[in-house]
Structure formats: structure tokens, C-alpha cells
């Protein structure tokens, strides 16, 4: 069985093996809390056994719903923010043709685009303008069913869809993914009679990519959600022991040893532009899970070699508070060789005949050696290829490691109390009913 692999050999001048091993009891305790629900936030552990407990019936229902949208729509807008958006976006980008947005939609293979992940007036104006001649559908995703950003986007697009298609046809093209009972979106979906999927109470947003939240948009985009789940099931099996054969345990222990040694920032590095949004998903997963009680490694992400020409200087030579976790993709989907040129005016003949990826891998290796020499420890994660199965492995691996790691720094990895502060101020500033006192208080500060 091919799987992702975690290699920590290049961290060992940043921390010693003994320093990592000293954290073994803490890592084992973190794993126990995740597996046995003995820690804080244990009512949000539904994601732990979710891959192996995903039923064929649920997958069939998701595929059937996706097929209906694929047959009737040339564009499907997935509305959601944070955990209700980033997982699907990451997987779709990783698996898609890089130039798909610029190609016309093929019959039966709609474009999946995203909304509700910002409050950009121009974004929404331009989106509605783009959709004005499209046969579009909507997947609206919000676990709470009350989040402002997706609610605004949905209000606009629902009205547009009803105007363009008629109310009855619009109803057939809207799918809501939300809580089973609570929230405005659940009420609205019930009133309108939309097809719905439930986000279980015990699965938090940023751990929900392997539920209908991620699976439906991914299936609409034409990708194999069964293979994604199969990969996650494989990783679920590989991540239950408190030893180095468990890659999530090893990664959690290593990054916490680095943190204890003063490496406060982790940079997730990819050498494949298709993984840009994977970095965004990962940042949310770790940032929202660990950044609490004035603790937590700051998660950053870069795309190399692109960002070697922007962030490379800082990483090589700036403050030594960083370490890198590199995702290296072994096999490419396509072949492209560098041609020979008789005149050789650009001086590139020394690499003529080589695969572009061979050059990329040398950029990766050269960078790793330079960064390690420069005091930047480097965890290497190899991914056999950008395919559904390996992405499923990688997603589950990072989720499991995140739970262990959060418990290792004694925070509840499954809440996000800090996110509420901006919302309270925004609602107060907008004079939302129920926020009268806060409105008065915040206006007095302006
Ligand atoms: O991880 C989380 O819980 C958050 O990022 C949520 O996913 C995000 O705030 C969106 O929330 P909701 O799905 O309730 O609209």
C-alpha cells in the first residue's frame, strides 16, 4: 500500500532525537485523548472514526445529488466560509487542470466556484454578473446556519437563481448542508423544501472536509469521493499507535519539540502550485485549533519555487524562529521535457532532455539543504501523487496530528472562542437586533 511518509531526519540539528523522545508521554496522552475522548472538547471527536464509519448509503446519496447538479448546471456555486469552504476548495484545486477556470465548461462537468468566503462587494457584483447567463446551482454550507458572510451571498444568489430560473426550478438546484435542527439555514431549507445534508453535531467545521461539506462540492467537480474516503480509512488505521510508525504521532511530537526549542512559526511548503489551497486549509486547521490561551505555533504557508523569489530571503536569513514542513509530490500526472536548442542563447542546454519535475526536485533539494544549513529545521512529507486517495490520507493525517498536537500544548483543539470577538463588534457596529448594549458601547469608543 502506497502512503504518505513523514521524514524528520532534517530537523535533528534544530532539536535532538532525545528532545523529541522526551515529549513521547505527552504525545501518547494527546493520542489517547483523541482516540478515547478523555480530553476537553471530546464532544467534537466525530471526525476520528468518520472515514471508516462513512456508509455506502451516504456516499451513494452524495454522488446521486452531485450527478443531478452535474446534469442540470454548467456552474455550481459552493457558498461557505472557513471549514465550510477550504477543504473542498483545497481538494478541487489539487485535482483540477490548472487552466480549468479559463476553459469553457464541458457538458455534464460544471465548474465549481466559491462564494460566501468574503464580504467583497465587487466580488459579489462580478460573480452575479458572471452568473447572469449561466445555468447555475447552489450548494450552501453552514454548520451554524447563521454565519454572516455565506448568508449574504446566499440571499443574493437565491434571489438571482429564482429570477433566472423560476422559484420551482431554483428549488431543485439548491442543496443546503447544515445542522440537523438548529440555525436559520435549517429553517430556510425546511421552509423551501431544499435537498439537505446534515453536519453532525460532533464534527467541527475545520474537521468536516470528509463529510458532505467537502464531499458534495468535490463530487460535483467530478472527483472520486470514494477514493478520497478510502485513503482516509487507510490513514485512520495507520494513526492509532503511540509510536513512530504512526506518522501523525511522529509529526505532532516533532513539531512540538521544535516549538519548545523556540521555533514559533511553522511554514507549510509546497512545490506544486495545485497545493496552494491545501496550505490555506492547513493554516485554518492548525491556526483555529491551536492558537489559544496565548499559545500555539503560528501556521504560515508558501508556494515554492514561486515564493523563493519573495519569502526566500526571510526564510534563509531572517529571525531563526521558523521551521518548515515540506509536502513533496513524487509522481506528476503529465510529462514535459525541456527541449534542446541549437543556438542555446538562454544557456539552458545543460538541462535539455530533463523532465521539468527533475529541475523542480533539485530546486526542492537545494532549498532544503540551504535552509537546514541556515538554521531552518525541515520536516518532509512525501505524497505519492496528487490523487484522491493520497489527498484523503494527507487530510486525515493532518487532522489526527492536529488533535494530538493541540492536546500536547494543553488547549482544547476543537473550539474557536476567539473568532467570536470580531463578530460581536461587527454586529454591534451594524446595530444587529439583540446587540443594543454592545452597539452603544462600541459607538462610544469611536
Ligand atoms: O472551523 C470552524 O468551525 C469555522 O472555521 C467554521 O467552519 C466557519 O466559521 C464557518 O462556520 P459555519 O459553517 O457555521 O458557517
Tag the structure with descriptive keywords.
single chain; 446 residues; alpha/beta; five-stranded mixed sheet; 18 helices; binds 5-phosphoarabinonic acid
Overview of this protein structure:
There is one protein chain. The protein is of the alpha/beta class. The protein is 47% helix and 14% strand. It contains 18 helices and 10 strands. The protein has helices at 17-22, 24-36, 50-53, 56-72, 86-95, 121-131, 148-165, 167-172, 184-192, 212-220, 225-238, 247-260, 276-290, 312-317, 356-373, 388-408, 419-429, 436-444; strands at residues 5-10, 75-79, 111-115, 136-142, 174-178, 195-198, 265-270, 298-303, 322-331, 378-385. The strands form 2 sheets. A 5-stranded mixed β-sheet has the order 1-10-9-7-8, with helices on both faces. A 5-stranded parallel β-sheet has the order 3-2-4-5-6, sandwiched between helices. α2 packs across α16, α12 (247-260) crosses α16 and α17 (419-429) crosses α18 (436-444). The site of 5-phosphoarabinonic acid (PA5) has 14 residues, from loops.
**Ligands bound, unique:** 5-phosphoarabinonic acid
Number of distinct helices: 18
Largest sheet: 5 strands, mixed
Strand percentage: 5-15%
Cα-to-Cα separation, first versus last residue? 61 Å
**How confident is the prediction overall: mean pLDDT?**
97
Shape: globular
Q: Structural class, please?
A: alpha/beta
* Strand order, sheet with most strands: 1-10-9-7-8
Number of strands: 10
Computed Rg: 23 Å
Percentage of residues in helical conformation: 40-55%
Poorly predicted regions: none
Amino acid at each position: 500500500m502506497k502512503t504518505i511518509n513523514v521524514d524528520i531526519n532534517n530537523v535533528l540539528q534544530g532539536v535532538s532525537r532525545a528532545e523529541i523522545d522526551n515529549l513521547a508521554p505527552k504525545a501518547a496522552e494527546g493520542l489517547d485523548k483523541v482516540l478515547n475522548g478523555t480530553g476537553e472538547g471530546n464532544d467534537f471527536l466525530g471526525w476520528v472514526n468518520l472515514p471508516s464509519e462513512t456508509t455506502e448509503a451516504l456516499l451513494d446519496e452524495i454522488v446521486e445529488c452531485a450527478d443531478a447538479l452535474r446534469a442540470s448546471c454548467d456552474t455550481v456555486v459552493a457558498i461557505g466560509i472557513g471549514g465550510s469552504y477550504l477543504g473542498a476548495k483545497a481538494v478541487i484545486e489539487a485535482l483540477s487542470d490548472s487552466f480549468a477556470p479559463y476553459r469553457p465548461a464541458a457538458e455534464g462537468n460544471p465548474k465549481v466556484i466559491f462564494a460566501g468566503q468574503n464580504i467583497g462587494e465587487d466580488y459579489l457584483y462580478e460573480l452575479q454578473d458572471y452568473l447572469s447567463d449561466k445555468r447555475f446551482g447552489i450548494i450552501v454550507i453552514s454548520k451554524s446556519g447563521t454565519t454572516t458572510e455565506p448568508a449574504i451571498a446566499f440571499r443574493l444568489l437565491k434571489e438571482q437563481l429564482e429570477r433566472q430560473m423560476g422559484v420551482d426550478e431554483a428549488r431543485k438546484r439548491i442543496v443546503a448542508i447544515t445542522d440537523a435542527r438548529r440555525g436559520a439555514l435549517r429553517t430556510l431549507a425546511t421552509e423551501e423544501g431544499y435537498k439537505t445534508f446534515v453536519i453532525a453535531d460532533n464534527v467541527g467545521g475545520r474537521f468536516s472536509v470528509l463529510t458532505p461539506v467537502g464531499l458534495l462540492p468535490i463530487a460535483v467537480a467530478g472527483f472520486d469521493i470514494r477514493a478520497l474516503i478510502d485513503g482516509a480509512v487507510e490513514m485512520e488505521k495507520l494513526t492509532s499507535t503511540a509510536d513512530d510508525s504512526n506518522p501523525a504521532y511522529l509529526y505532532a511530537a516533532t513539531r512540538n519539540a521544535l516549538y519548545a526549542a523556540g521555533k514559533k512559526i511553522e511554514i507549510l511548503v509546497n512545490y506544486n502550485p495545485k497545493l496552494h489551497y491545501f496550505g490555506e486549509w492547513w493554516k485554518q486547521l492548525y491556526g483555529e485549533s491551536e492558537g489559544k490561551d496565548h499559545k500555539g505555533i503560528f501556521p504560515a504557508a508558501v508556494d515554492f519555487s514561486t515564493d523563493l523569489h519573495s519569502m526566500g530571503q526571510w526564510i534563509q536569513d531572517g529571525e531563526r524562529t521558523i521551521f518548515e514542513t515540506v509536502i513533496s509530490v513524487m509522481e506528476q500526472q503529465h510529462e514535459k521535457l525541456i527541449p534542446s536548442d541549437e543556438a542555446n542563447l538562454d544557456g539552458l542546454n545543460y538541462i535539455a532532455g530533463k523532465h521539468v519535475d527533475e529541475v523542480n526536485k533539485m530546486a526542492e533539494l537545494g532549498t532544503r539543504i540551504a535552509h537546514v544549513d541556515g538554521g531552518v529545521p525541515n520536516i518532509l512529507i512525501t505524497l505519492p501523487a496528487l490523487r484522491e486517495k493520497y489527498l484523503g490520507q494527507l487530510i486525515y493525517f493532518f487532522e489526527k496530528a492536529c488533535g494530538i498536537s493541540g492536546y500536547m500544548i494543553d488547549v482544547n483543539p476543537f473550539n474557536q472562542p476567539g473568532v467570536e470577538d470580531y463578530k460581536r463588534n461587527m454586529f454591534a457596529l451594524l446595530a444587529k437586533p439583540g446587540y443594543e448594549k454592545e452597539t452603544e458601547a462600541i459607538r462610544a469608543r469611536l
